[in-house]
Amino acid sequence: MTARSAPPFRADHVGSLLRPKALMEARQKVADGAMSRVELAKVEDACIREAVAMQESLGFKAVTDGEFRRTYWHVDFLVGIGGIREKLEPGEQPTFKATGWRPPVLEVAGTVKHTQPIMGPGFDYLKSVTKALPKVCIPAPGVAHFRGGRAAVDRKAYPEMGAFWDDLAAAYRAEVADLAKRGCRYLQFDEVFFAYLCDPKLRDMAKARGDDPDELARTYAKAINDSIRDRPRDMTVAMHVCRGNAKGTWVAEGGYGAVAEAMFSTRVDAFFLEYDDERSGGFEPLKLVPKGKKVVLGLVTSKRPAMEAKDELKRRIDEAAKYVPFENLALSPQCGFSSTIDGNPLTQDEQKAKLRLCVEVANEVWGGV
Q1: CB under 8 Å to 262, separation ≥6 — which residues?
Q2: Beta-strand relationship, 186-190 and 136-139
């Protein structure tokens, strides 16, 4: 085996990083009215430069901005699309285990359209401060729908849901085109709700509000395919799937078997899949991964500081290689370290150690990153 020349690389990471103290303090000052957003942007820039330098020093070939300009992995992006806003009364929602925390719910209050670049300016800055490949992570189209369902989509704007999905995909295509024009060649869609639909309790929740969980998975897959159909040929698009990640906790449990067929029908190039503990089930569903597609195994947990043993990681990579060719596998944490601004219960040093572990194991297993 040798190192890869194109993403996803043998050692990769999902996207978000723990927010530095300086950034958290600056955000609080903005909330208190003691700092302007222009000044906050300068703090964000400085923290992103440091995060990029850290990733490069560890040997990562692709780097992110740590999502330092966001409060949530999904909300900040989706409310940038015309017609989508945060819902004031979210209603009953699945909670994160142990904490009882519920994430914000979005609603479609009017016609969905792409009104301005969302990630473009941030990508421009990231590209300017790295020699590595800049990677952009955005929530997948299904994230605009799952938590609220049909009830969160305005019936005057969309009497029929087909038109909603058409408009949403068109907005995504416009954003992808803008990123491509700026030079983005590594894009990741975060579609966590495939994994939610693996959980019997959440499948029952979907049924209770009138959704067919299997049809929902197919709808989300089609929305991704429609969103990326015009991407440049040299743009790698990956999809990340996990069962919830906030403050070290999660929402869903269950193996990928229930959604594998729909999930692997998406025309992305690679799948970042959560496999850090028993909640994710076994590797058997990987037998449905299409020929030539890459799978990044999320074997290193970002939820806890305890370090994984290298031998155990290597053993599990060997297990996965029974279903996906060894040369098509890679290694990463199962999710980001800070899907919300609060972050998971790790220190900056512990986060760095987890990332270093991925690089070291990749070098030992495949002979390079």
Answers
A1: 194, 214, 217, 218, 220, 221
A2: parallel
Q: What is the C-alpha to C-alpha distance for residues 342 and 329, in angstroms, rounded to an integer?
A: 31
- The answer to whether residue 2 sits within a structural domain is no
Task: Quote the CA–CA distance of 179 and 127 in Å, as a whole number.
Answer: 11
pLDDT tens sequence across 308-348: 999 999 999 999 999 999 999 999 999 999 999 999 999 99
- Give the CA distances from residue 126 to residues 78, 93, 181, 304, in Å, rounded to whole numbers and listed in that order: 20, 35, 15, 28
13 is a domain residue = no
pTM: 0.94
Q: Establish if 35 belongs to a structural domain.
A: yes
Q: Where are the alpha helices (DSSP H) in the chain?
A: 21-31, 37-58, 75-78, 120-128, 161-182, 193-196, 200-208, 213-227, 260-263, 310-320, 348-366
Q: Which pair of tokens denotes residue 64?
A: 């992110």
Residue 117's domain comprises: 21-366
Helix orientation angle between 213-227 and 200-208, rounded to the nearest 10 degrees: 90
Helix (H, G, I), strand (E, B) or coil at 154: coil
Residue pair 323/284 in contact by the 8 Å Cβ criterion: yes
- The number of domains in the chain is 1
Domain-embedded: residue 16: no
Judged against a pLDDT cut of 70, whether residue 237 lies above it is answered with yes
Give the CA-trace dihedral at 12, 75, 129, 48, to 10 degrees.
-90
End-to-end CA distance of the chain: 10
Strand, helix or coil at 237? strand
Rounded mean pLDDT, 97-119 = 83
Asked if pLDDT for residue 303 goes beyond 80, the answer is yes
Strand partners, 63: 134
CA distance linking residue 303 with residue 139, whole number of Å: 20
CATH number of residue 200's parent domain: 3.20.20.210
- Calculate ∠ Cα 276-282-286, nearest 5°: 105
